Amino acid sequence: MTRDAFETALAQALDTERGAERTGALLYAGLDGFRLVNEDHGLAHGDKVLAAATRQLRDVCGARVPMCRMAGDEFALWLNADTATCELLASRAAEALAGGVALDGQRYGAGVSVGVALFPVHGSSSQLIHRAAAAMRAVKRAGGGSHALFDPRFEIEQREELRIAQDLRQAIERRELDLVYQPKVEASSLQVTAVEALLRWRHPTLGMVSPARFIPIAEKHGLIEPIGNWVLAAALKQAAAWRKAGLRMRVAINVSGYQMRQDDFARRLEAGLRSHRLQPNRFTCEITESVAMEDTQVTRRAFARLGKIGVHVSIDDFGTGHSSLATLRRLPAQELKIDRAFIVDMVDDADARTIVEAVLTMARTLGLRVVAEGVETPAQRDALVRLGCDELQGYLFAKPMSARAIALWAMDAPTALAQSFRPSLFKETIITGSAPTEIMKR
Ligand code: C2E
Ligand code: MG
Ligand code: MG
């Protein structure tokens, strides 16, 4: 059904509903992770998957319900039923497509997010579509694969998101972005081996906005490319400055999935390393497990390029995604970072400890170093050292800090700023006895 026909059918249904005081619901279904299906299998196969998704939604909701494709991978359905039935069908739709759309014995995509707007409580026909779509987006923000009833909160969140996206467009020119750096220490010696660059945005009125909040928005609104390029350039420049000053530490950046798919990311990285005369193996790209495990042609190619350049590859937030051992083994990675969630729980929770142990054993077999992130207590540190974790990172050792603070700390400068850190950690990373220029030679 075309969108026009759907909207006409909807308006007619609502008209009669109003008279009869009946209820219904608009379901707005968006496939999760469908972009990857197109990327990996091509558009023609993507279309077959979409047709299969339509069939599966109809199987759940009824063969004759008015249904329309609203956008690439988004569908609207009108259900003529009471609220409880509509909600039940929405949850069944999410369940039926959990794990992806079934086609020829395979699953494609990750699932479906379903937003529900009720008639008459959530408004008239055009409002219903918008509101069900807003509910669907809220489900996606929360990770997808589920359903939600419209809530006015969703529209407020959506407006906020649009505002952030708008302001983010100007953040680079207005010099509102900055990098802070958090050390990684070697577990056995507690010496600093590396720093991770973390992005900060000082918004003129909202104050500090967390990257956990604005990076997903930047990705969604097509802004991650300039931001990622800015981070790369700034981190390379800083790494070169530290090198010149004689600080021998690896510098890591976080690379988003979108950057990995960006055609010229590897080329920029390689050119940047060369122009700053930095050794590739002293630079790390942290890529989250969920992106690393996408394992599409595009990500495979991106990983191969990083491997070829010779940068260090680290799998971030490990344990939160679904790793395939086969994929993990193929990746040109050197490091796994165990997600903070397991570290927080490991002292009191035997399951979390078992997972940490299993990750360590597996990493050893694969020849990967393991970094524990979010170490906050001496008890966590001791347990991780005992288990043979290679490197630790967390507030217990240092919070993310400015490049200047890192340098002051490293140089053991007697300033008020340096007093708040533990200078001893950095001593060994200051290179003595050799000229910085020599170290920079490949
Ligand atoms: P991540 O890469 O896993 O970074 C770890 C996050 O945990 C950082 O949050 C860090 O400040 C925080 N953290 C470190 N130690 C502790 C601890 O002991 N306790 C607690 N509670 N938290 C700790 P931050 O800086 O807010 O960054 C959040 C996420 O945003 C990062 O997670 C990363 O995925 C993303 N991000 C940050 N900078 C960038 C960037 O430049 N590019 C991209 N694409 N993503 C970035
Ligand atoms: Mg990271
Ligand atoms: Mg992490």
Architecture blueprint of SSEs:
Blueprint: H1 3-20, E1 24-32, H2 34-41, H3 43-61, E2 67-71, E3 74-79, H4 83-96, E4 101-103, E5 106-108, E6 111-119, H5 125-141, E7 147-149, H6 152-171, E8 177-186, E9 192-203, E10 207-209, H7 211-220, H8 224-244, E11 250-254, H9 257-261, H10 265-275, E12 283-288, H11 289-292, H12 297-309, E13 312-318, H13 325-330, E14 335-338, H14 340-345, H15 350-366, E15 369-372, H16 378-387, E16 391-392, H17 403-410, H18 416-419, H19 436-440
Parallel strand pairs: 6-7, 9-11, 11-12, 12-13, 13-14, 14-15, 15-16
Antiparallel strand pairs: 1-3, 1-6, 2-3, 4-5, 8-9, 8-16, 9-10
One magnesium ion is lined by residues 196, 254, 286, 316.
Description:
The chain is of the alpha/beta class and 442 residues long. The chain has two domains: 3-150, Alpha-Beta Plaits; 170-440, Alpha-Beta Barrel (TIM Barrel), CATH 3.20.20. 49% of the residues lie in helices and 21% in strands. It is built from 19 helices and 16 strands. The strands form three sheets. An eight-stranded mixed barrel has the order 8-9-11-12-13-14-15-16. It has a five-stranded mixed β-sheet with strand order 2-3-1-6-7, with helices on both faces. Strands 4-5 form a two-stranded antiparallel ribbon. Strand 8 and strand 9 form a beta hairpin. The longest helix has 21 residues, at 224-244. The N and C termini lie far apart (63 Å). Mean pLDDT is 89; it is low at 413-442. One magnesium ion (MG) is lined by residues 196, 254, 286, 316.
